[in-house]
Amino acid sequence: MIILKLGGSVITRKDSIDPALDNENLNRIAKEISEASKNARYGELIVVHGAGSFGHPYAKKYDIGGSIPDKKEFQRKRKGFCITQEAVKNLNSAVCNELRKYGIPAVSVQPSSFVITKNKRIIRADLTLIQKYLDSGFVPVLYGDPVLDEDETIKMAILSGDQIISYIGKNLKPDRVILGSDVNGVYKKDPKKYPNAKPVKVVGSMEDLESAEGTQNVDVTGGMGGKITELLELAEIGVESEILNAGTPDLIKRALMGEKGIGTLIKLQN
Amino acid sequence: MIILKLGGSVITRKDSIDPALDNENLNRIAKEISEASKNARYGELIVVHGAGSFGHPYAKKYDIGGSIPDKKEFQRKRKGFCITQEAVKNLNSAVCNELRKYGIPAVSVQPSSFVITKNKRIIRADLTLIQKYLDSGFVPVLYGDPVLDEDETIKMAILSGDQIISYIGKNLKPDRVILGSDVNGVYKKDPKKYPNAKPVKVVGSMEDLESAEGTQNVDVTGGMGGKITELLELAEIGVESEILNAGTPDLIKRALMGEKGIGTLIKLQN
């Protein structure tokens, strides 16, 4: 089984103030998934997508996951929760519809219907149903979603697609995790500042990302730090992942068909 | 806590070939719920709605819940499952949006994300999350949805709003169940054939529905038979329900505010 992450920055116009799809990317990626599944040796796939401009503007506006000083702020956040849930659900419909257009039996699985977090980490999520969908050849499609949080000071949280991947990865042990991002992989230096920078081939520990020049605290670009920490935890239990550029045609397809090393592999070094 | 059912025949144009909302009813009912919740003594509400023209045409076309003779038919039904799921999700979005328009913190809870049936009856559905939404003052909105079924001969089933009500009713013990239908209540005689027929005031057993003239097997109109059997089971554990006409203005509001006996009460006789 493969888990494929589609970053919100790939399938939506992330900098848009209002929810906006990147139709071109979404259509191309759905086509690639369909083409790969005709040829691939595996039969099972879970798709997890981010929220992009469908979620972040609302989550930020209503500060979902922030502390709740009084009843009025609680009510404001609760309203924001409902609005955010609706918006990301619409994105999920767009993704599922596009996948179905290419014959993929995409079934929506709504995290806010079965996941509970505590201090923003999943503490309750029964994956039985997802396994059953896989067993019947469906492609479950999950996504970043607001969820209830058991920490009384915040009561709600935004569950990211990355955390979903980490949780499913640990529990269902996929053969591979493929993360379709808007960058070519993991860099030691910011590729926007250093145009010649190339992505690291393999990350086996956080030390691999320390600068060759010996500088400390090298920024891992694009909020990759937390993501890599989670992926290294997966690597430790034997689940290998790869971060690649889903904005570049055919990379998702090639990776789904078994090719490795297109972007940055996260796996323990032998 | 109150469970309010909105029949698919009330909020959609049930006889439409394509999914079609009954915007007028939906808007009016959302307004009534909002007005009632400002005055009501209770603070907790679950809304469950049917699928109407958003679900039945697809469920029928693909015969979801029917037996599966071969792989081809399985694939056809699986496709139908995905299409039906998407359509009823769209109806649910319309319902939630309308409720939110009137300030109700409506949160969507997707049955196909947490319910499994066996031979078309729920055998697995964790209601913890629904209780938590209630505790935080959300209004969970569930709906008729296709779900996976553990019976290998059918593999999928259509979970009706009525079965959801029955299951939640038994497990969360609401103070009341209100069923907004397109008829005034339960009749002994078909009111379309007998224009002077009046709905029964109270049903305490199936015997109450036998004709006063002593005829056997009187048809209980509108597919009410199965519904009443389920509601009588609720009555036996002390959960009273009422079937009323949600197409008539103000009845939902009056019932939510505590009035009883507007339509037909289903409760054990003393």
TrEMBL record, chains A, B:
It comes from the Archaea. Its EC number is 2.7.4.26. Signal peptide: none annotated. It catalyses: isopentenyl phosphate + ATP = isopentenyl diphosphate + ADP. ATP binds at residues 5-9, 52, 182, 187-192, 223, 227. Homodimer. Catalyzes the formation of isopentenyl diphosphate (IPP), the building block of all isoprenoids. Belongs to the isopentenyl phosphate kinase family. This is Isopentenyl phosphate kinase.
